[in-house]
C-alpha cells in the first residue's frame, strides 16, 4: 500500500488567523482515522462496524462511524479511533488503506453557508447525490452535511488545504 503521508508535508491551519465572520464559521473537524475502502464496499464497511451505506454530498452525517462515497466501489470510512482492521486486500473482496494523513476535515457553519456553497459549486444541494466527492471552488473535496444541514464537513486532500482555505477566505472577504 502507498504511504501518502510521505508524499507531502502536513498542512497547517491557524484558526485564529482565519477570516471567520458573523455569518460564517470554519473550524477544524475533530481528528478521526480515515480509511479508503475499495472493492466490495459493503463487506469492507461491515468489517469496520459501519452498517449504513456510504453518504453522498447532500446527505447528513447522523452518527459515527460513517462512510462517504467516492465511487461505486470506493469510499472513505471515517472512524473515531484507530481500528484493528488489517490494511491491504481481504479474501472477502475488499481492500483497506489508511488515508488518515491524506485528508484534513473542516466544518463550516453559519447563515452564510448557503451563499458560500452557491459560489463553490454548481451542485443542486436539494437533490441526492451518489458521490460525496465534488468540485468545490477549484478542487475536488469530499462533503457531507452535519446535524440539521446547518453545517457541512469538508474532507480536503492534505496538499490542497492551503489552496482551498485561501479560496474560502477570499470568497468570505469579497462577498
Fold and architecture overview:
- The protein has 175 residues and is α+β, with helices and mostly antiparallel strands.
- The chain has a single domain, classed as Probable tRNA modification gtpase trme, domain 1 (Gyrase A, domain 2, 2-Layer Sandwich).
- Helix content is 16%, strand content 34%.
- It contains three helices and eleven strands, in the order ββαββββββαβββα.
- Strands 1, 3, 8, 9, 10 and 11 form a six-stranded mixed β-sheet that branches.
- A hairpin with a 2-residue loop joins strand 9 and strand 10.
- The longest helix is centred in the C-terminal third of the chain and has 13 residues.
- It is globular and about 50 Å long.
- 28% of the residues are buried.
List its salient traits.
single chain; 175 residues; alpha+beta; Gyrase A, domain 2; 6-stranded mixed sheet; 5-stranded antiparallel sheet; 3 helices; globular
How are the SSEs placed, and which strands pair?
Elements: E1 25-28, E2 33-39, H1 41-47, E3 60-61, E4 66-71, E5 74-79, E6 88-90, E7 94-98, E8 103-109, H2 113-120, E9 133-136, E10 139-146, E11 151-157, H3 161-173
Parallel strand pairs: 3-10
Antiparallel strand pairs: 1-8, 2-5, 2-7, 4-5, 6-7, 8-11, 9-10, 10-11
Amino acid at each position: 500500500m502507498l504511504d501518502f503521508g510521505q508524499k507531502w508535508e502536513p498542512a497547517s491551519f491557524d484558526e485564529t488567523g482565519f477570516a471567520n465572520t458573523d455569518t460564517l464559521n470554519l473550524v477544524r473537524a475533530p481528528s478521526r482515522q480515515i480509511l479508503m475502502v475499495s472493492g466490495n464496499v459493503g463487506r469492507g464497511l461491515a468489517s469496520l462496524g459501519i452498517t449504513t451505506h456510504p453518504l453522498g454530498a447532500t446527505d447528513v452525517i447522523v452518527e459515527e462511524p460513517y462512510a462517504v462515497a467516492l465511487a461505486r466501489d470506493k469510499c472513505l470510512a471515517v472512524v473515531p479511533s484507530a481500528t484493528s482492521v488489517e490494511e491491504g486486500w481481504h479474501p472477502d473482496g475488499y481492500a483497506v488503506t489508511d488515508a488518515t494523513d491524506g485528508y484534513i476535515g473542516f466544518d463550516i457553519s453559519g447563515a452564510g453557508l448557503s451563499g458560500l456553497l452557491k459560489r463553490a459549486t454548481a451542485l443542486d444541494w436539494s437533490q441526492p447525490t451518489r458521490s460525496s466527492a465534488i468540485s468545490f471552488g477549484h478542487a475536488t473535496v469530499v462533503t457531507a452535511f452535519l446535524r440539521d444541514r446547518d453545517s457541512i464537513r469538508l474532507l480536503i486532500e492534505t496538499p490542497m488545504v492551503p489552496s482551498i482555505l485561501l479560496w474560502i477566505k477570499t470568497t468570505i472577504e469579497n462577498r
